[in-house]
Amino acid sequence: MKFFSYITEKRDEEYPALNGVRAISIMMIIGLHIWIGANHFIPNIPYLLDTALKNLTAGIDLFFILSGFLIYGNLLKEKVKYGNIKLSFFYIKRSLRIFPAYYFLLLVQYLSMRGMLKSLNAAENLDASKTLLKQSLTESISYAWADIFYISNYTKGRLFDYGWSLSIEEQFYLILPPLCALLFFKISDSTRRILLVGLYFIPVILRAVYSQFDILPTHIIYTHSETRFDSLIAGMLCSEFFLSSYYSNFFQKKPIRYSVLSVSIILAAIGFLTEKTAFTQIYAYNCLNLGFAGIVLVSLSENSYIGKFLSFSVFRPIARVSYTMYLWHLYPTSAAISIVCGTVIQSLSYSRTFATFIVAVLFTFLFCTILFYLIERPFLKLKDKWIARLKARSASTPN
Q: How far apart are CA 270 and CA 258, in angstroms?
């Protein structure tokens, strides 16, 4: 269908396997919220299975790795090709890509919360649950400014529960390009890579310090930029290695690919099977981001089986609307739970939980595809026209 062509067409400039990675990332997040609601109604759940499914939050780490890989990689390629990077181009592209959908969501969240709070304020004799809801809504609305300025990962409340991860990403987008222009791309390749490796270890050190001395509780460490940016750095290091002359030679032989993939899967499995506590979160995120980074690198190599699987065209449309799906997935997911499980749940089976997941992914994709074309696509067209005009003007300007 012509309507779907933008999200289904194959593009020469992208890495097909990363569409699969992005699609799996958003499905992990949807699966997480299905499981959080379902595990209370399934008897005798094995501990490791429950831990692994609760750790589907790792889909966020996978998104961080993709952001580090793609954003930094594009800047690195721009530097190699042109000798410098255009900060104005970068910020125009990023702003028109992420702001419209995000601020539209915040507007809807704000209006709906205000409406609910107004109803609660007008009601008399609120029970305990509604009193708690009223307090929660009041707190969330009071921190709307943090969502607007992408610093909700440092505040007690927020309009959008999962906006903390978007705040980390936006802070990364804000800081990385100037840092590249002023430092990373002014030093030698080897020095830059050593510096990135050093930066990678800062979050794990901070997690250890915060936990050891009770500076921050576990759930706060989970959302702070300084304790979570190692996943972004892992993506940047992936990009450094992938764009270097060593990559193709290193992964040319199957035994090396299989070895890297095996170690990566083991690391990721350790991260998934580790319950996040004040102590285990110190290293668990590193197991996840290093494991994911290795899987991403192997998937990008030619003729790798995992790369061929992740390049299947079925993943492409989900990947294209994954950002919208992340923003809005709770609404269609809730609808899927009501349809498959009913409004009053007594007990659930694994099969019904899985069926709910499938329906939730389908509902979320269809709902968010419509939103994508209504909200995001017009601004993406504007972005393409604006950048093309700026490039033409830059090309016609004498040096």
A: 18
At 2-35, the pLDDT tens digits run 567 889 998 888 999 999 999 999 999 999 999 9
Task: Match 């692994």 to its residue by tokens.
Answer: 52
Question: Which residue, chain included where needed, has tokens 């927020």?
Answer: 158
> Residue holding tokens 């300025």?
149
d(CA 247, CA 249): 6
Calculate the CA dihedral of residues 153, 154, 156, 160 and round it to 10 degrees: -20
Cα distance between residue 215 and residue 220, in whole Å: 10
List the one residue out of 118, 93, 110 whose CA is nearest residue 148: 110
Half-sphere exposure of 341 (CA within 13 A, CB side): 31
User: Tokens in use for 85?
Assistant: 């990077």
Amino acid at site 377:
R
Is the Cβ–Cβ distance between 362 and 340 less than 8 Å? no
pTM for the predicted model, two decimal places:
0.94
- Measured in residues, the chain has a length of 399
What is the per-residue DSSP string for 111-164? HHHHHHHHHHHH-SS--HHHHHHHHHHHHHHHTHHHHHTT-GGGSS--SSTTHH
Q: What distance in Å separates the CA atoms of residue 8 and residue 334, rounded to the nearest whole number?
A: 27
Q: How far apart are CA 393 and CA 379, in angstroms?
A: 21
pLDDT for 45-81, tens place per residue? 999 999 999 999 999 999 999 999 999 999 999 998 8
Residue closest to 386 by CA, chosen among 126, 94, 140:
94
